[in-house]
Amino acid sequence: MLEKQGVIHVSIGAHPEEDGSAFMVSVLTVAEQPLEGIKPALALAGALDALGAGGATEATMVDLPCGPALFTDEIERAPASPAREGADPDDAEDRVWRGTVLIPNRTGSSVYLMQLTTAALAYEAEYREILLAMAHTVTFDDPEGPSPGLAARQRALEDDMRKTFG
């Protein structure tokens, strides 16, 4: 199921509450979406629109070492488990923080999604910093060396993203 969604990595963390009473869970997901002829800026705009349907209201362009990317985050209602159907929508136990970074690769052939989700709402700022720090480690450098024309394609991609997102 995850493979069909383009997921290439999932990590699950269990973090003890400060008082030791319970564990909070976090999930890191990395996925790749091939673009197949779509301009990366348009693909990111479409992804942003889809994320907005879930409650994200704005995105921030971030400069990563691998090029420009989009960051968005939100607090949303988590899917209710069957045992919790009919739960109060304002109940903090039913809400999660979700941060997403959308990163086009240098050739513009695909977009990578890096998403971190947690129910530890009190640590939203810390999780945001963690996600952005992880995004800053992304590289598309080929250990064999750059291919001809890569620099020109990268500049065109960055120019297009800046024109679209500012």
Could you characterize the architecture of this molecule?
The protein is 25% helix and 34% strand. It has helices spanning 40-52, 124-135, 150-165; strands spanning 7-16, 23-34, 60-64, 67-77, 95-104, 110-118. A hairpin with a 6-residue loop joins strand 1 (7-16) and strand 2. It is α+β, with helices and mostly antiparallel strands. It is built from 3 helices and 6 strands. It is elongated. The longest helix is centred in the last third of the chain and has 16 residues, at 150-165. Helix 1 (40-52) packs across helix 3 (150-165).
What order do the SSEs take from the amino end to the carboxyl end, as H and E? Answer: EEHEEEEHH
Average predicted confidence as pLDDT: 79
Shape: elongated
Tell me roughly what share of residues is in helical segments: 10-25%
Strand content range: 25-35%
Distance between the termini: 36 Å
Number of helices: 3
Strand order of the largest sheet: 1-2-6-5-4-3
SSE layout:
Elements: E1 7-16, E2 23-34, H1 40-52, E3 60-64, E4 67-77, E5 95-104, E6 110-118, H2 124-135, H3 150-165
Antiparallel strand pairs: 1-2, 2-6, 3-4, 4-5, 5-6
Helix pairs in contact: 1-3
Brief descriptors of the model:
alpha+beta, six-stranded antiparallel β-sheet, 6 strands, single chain
